Amino acid sequence: MAQGMNTTDFGRLQFQFMGTQDPMLSMLEWLCSQMMEAEVSSKLGAEKHVQSEERTSHLSGFRPKRLDTRLGTMYLLIPKVRNGGYIPYFMTER
């Protein structure tokens, strides 16, 4: 799987987060969604909306999940994987 170029504009994101009620919680939500997207892409063998011979499964929507942190409560959209399931590594029981 080829690795794409990261074109994230962190300056724009910083201003976007500063405009929210809780900037640190917003940044954490963004980081968690980026980590889940990268983890699911590596598990599936292809990025979202990309055809690949190495693909092992497909996405099948999202499910909401509550995550309580020291910064506050977040509601994340966890990707559903058709074959094998998916649980983010940071949401496993401790």
Rounded to the nearest angstrom, the distance between the terminal CA atoms is 32 Å
Principal-axis shape = flat
Estimated radius of gyration:
15 Å
Overall pLDDT metric: 82
Overall structural class, as computed from helix and strand content, comes to alpha+beta
The strands making up the biggest β-sheet line up spatially as 1-2
Number of strands: 2
State the order of secondary-structure elements, H for helix, E for strand.
Answer: HHEE
How many separate structural domains? 1
Q: What is the count of helical runs?
A: 2
| Beta-strand residue fraction | 15-25%
- Uncertain segments are none
The helix content, as a percent range, equals 25-40%
The biggest beta sheet is recorded as:
2 strands, antiparallel
In words, what does this structure look like?
This protein has a two-stranded antiparallel ribbon. The longest helix has 22 residues, at 23-44. It starts with 9 loop residues before the first helix and ends in a 13-residue tail after the last strand. Helix content is 33%, strand content 20%. The protein has helices at residues 10-18, 23-44, and strands at residues 59-68, 73-81. The protein is built from 2 helices and 2 strands, in the order ααββ. The chain is flat, with a radius of gyration of 15 Å. Strand 1 (59-68) and strand 2 form a beta hairpin. It is of the alpha+beta class and 94 residues long. The chain has one domain (17-88).
